[in-house]
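Incident log, structure service

09:12 report received: a user says their structure output differs between two submissions of the same chain.
09:20 pulled the input from the user's history:
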Amino acid sequence: MKRKLVFLLAICMVFSLMGCGRSGEADVAKVKGTPCEIALIMKEDSVEEDPYGQGIWNGIETFAQSNGVTCQWFSVGSDDIEDCKETMNQAISEGARVLVVGGSDFEQAVFSMELEYLDVSFIIVDGPDMAENSDAEAMLHDNITGVAFKEEEAGYMAGYAAVMEGYRTLGFLGGKELPSVIRFGYGFVQGADAAARKLNVDQIDLKYHYLGHFQPGEDVAELAKSWYDGGVEVIFACCGSAGQSVMEAAELSGGKVIGVDSDQSDQSETVVTSATKNLPKAIETILTEYYDGQFPGSQLIRLGVAEGGVALAMDNARLTEFSKAEYEELCRQFSASVSETSPQNGLAPASPGPDILTEEIAIVNEIPTKAVRVSLVQ
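09:34 re-ran on a clean worker, output below:
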């Protein structure tokens, strides 16, 4: 795909450097009917309800405020493709020239509109899903780009840290069984297994379940509490807003939580760390490209540890055994697998990054592990 290598190199630089584009204060629009240039299309009623949507909106809002452009979010409220198209049409009619959508659920609506609105640029976050949609790559035209993350790397580090911290009974609670959520979970299993092998731990028990949704509720809290009361020490809550219910259960049962998407340490004392995706910086980077006349159309860009796309939140982590130095060494291993540069600052060369299985595995029980025993909870 055109300019892919150049853009991947550029994105690393932009992650560390801010300040491109137009200057001035933004007129940030949040009221429907107010003209806007950049629109976020989402399902939640408010960006504050979901850490995932909040991360995307933060990137849009930061860029808008720094560059004197207007932005607005629009709520769809359903999975129906016609509802999605109607909401996108509304945004375009109110002046939007860049539409940002979060999640592969929106991709069919985008694909049905991209040729109708050639003067509008579309950004699909966490999509399109090439594994599920064999035609997706052919449908990426010059006015559409996809941004995906290597969630398996963040999940791997979360599982690795959990076992290194001393936890031996783990839980993974996913929202919908989407590719990004699956990658988090598969990485979590493999990272836990790698740490167990490093420590010569014979067995790690791991409960694994998808809720089928991302909404908080008593059902989520009850399930999480039953896990904690049954011996699970820490749950990787990869389930959006439903993670709040997991935290409530952890507070009642004395359990621990690993957050997702953003640093969730401020939401509960039970959060020991979070597997984060650098949603704001990814969005800011692509918007900068757009306003510089270099929109990376027709590309699917994947960002991992080496590109600054995913990480563990260590600054506010409540970990006592897994150190920041160990985390940094793990990051070096991932970066070494994609870097051809010599080590800097006198550091020894890192060993090759972990080889994490993802799309080729049909179900989590097919992941080859030595120590981790996965129990699928129906």
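09:41 both user submissions now match this output. Likely a transient worker issue. Closing.
09:42 reviewer note: The CA atoms of residues 14 and 285 lie 6 Å apart. The chain has a mean pLDDT of 85.
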